[in-house]
Amino acid sequence: MKFPFSLINLNSGEGGVVVSFVCSATGICEKYFSLICGVQVEANFSQRGWTEKIDPTVSTDTYSRTMNYVEIPFLAHIGFGQDKPRGVQGFIHVGPQVAYLISESEKKSWSDNVDISTLTRTNDVNYQYIPAQNKFDYGLVGGGGFEMKTGVGSFLMEGRYYFGLSDFFNIGNGDRQFTRAAHTTISVRLAYLFNVNKKQQKAKKK
User: Fold this and answer.
1) Domain residues for 161?
2) Of 8, 30, 153, 179, which one has the fewest beta carbons inside 10 Å?
3) b vs e for 140-154, b when ≥16 Cβ sit within 10 Å of the residue's Cβ?
4) Which three-class secondary structure state does DSSP give residue 56?
C-alpha cells in the first residue's frame, strides 16, 4: 500500500488539491519485454468546476462553481523497465472511474432571488445555474508518467485524462439546453510514495 499526495490543475482553469489513498499490487507479466503489470485502486478527494466567461458587452455578471467529489479509479498499471528497489521506470494507467458529488458551491454576482431565466446571455443559455441533478459520476481515465525509486521512497510525475460518460444535468428532458453536461479533466500529478509494508521492502533489497 502506498500513500501519495498530489497537486493537480483542472481543465476548468482552476487548481485543486487531491488527497489520495492508493492500494496497488504488481508483478512481472512479460519477462522478454520487461513489462510490470498490476492493478491500482485509489480513493481521491477532488475539486472540479468551471468559471464562466460572460460577454462583457451583454452583461457584467460573473459566475464560478466548485464541485467536490470523492472518486475511485480502478486502474491497470503497466510499467516499463526492471522492477528494482532503485531507478527510473515509466508506466501507463488506464481504467474506469466512479465518483460521487458530496458538495458544491458557487460564486455569483446576482442575488438568490433573481429568476435565472431573466439573465441576459449571448447564447440564451442559463440552465447551468441550477444545482447538479445527478451526483453519481462515471467515466474512463488514462495516463502515463515516470516513477523514480529511491531509498526514501518513490517520486512520480503523471499526466492523466478523464472523460466523463455521465451528465450532472438532466439533458434528456424537453427543456434541455445542452447536448452534454459531463466532466472532462486534464491533470498533472506530482506524488511521493512510500511503502508501508516494511517486510516486503526489505525482501526486495536482498
Assistant:
1) 5-205
2) 179
3) ebbbebebebeeebb
4) coil
Instruction: Report the CATH number that the domain containing residue 37 is assigned in CATH.
Output: 2.40.160.20
Cα angle at 190 between 186 and 192, to 5 degrees?
A: 145
More confident residue, 32 or 141: 141
Residue 190 has a pLDDT of 83
Residue corresponding to grid cell 434528456: 172
Q: How many CB atoms lie within 10 A of CB 110?
A: 15
Separation of CA 12 from chain center? 12
152 Rama sector, left if φ>0, alpha if ψ -120 to 50, beta otherwise: alpha
User: Could you give the residue ranges of the DSSP H alpha helices within the chain?
Assistant: 198-205
The pLDDT value recorded for residue 139 is 96
Bridge partners for 188 per DSSP: 159
Q: Count how many domains the chain has.
A: 1
Give CA angle at 49 (46, 53), nearest 5°. Answer: 155
CA 120/CA 60 separation, integer angstroms: 10
pLDDT digits 0-9 by tens, 179-202:
788 998 888 888 887 776 655 555
Task: Say if residues 191 and 1 touch (Cβ distance below 8 Å).
Answer: no
Task: With a cut of 60, say whether residue 35 has pLDDT above it.
Answer: yes
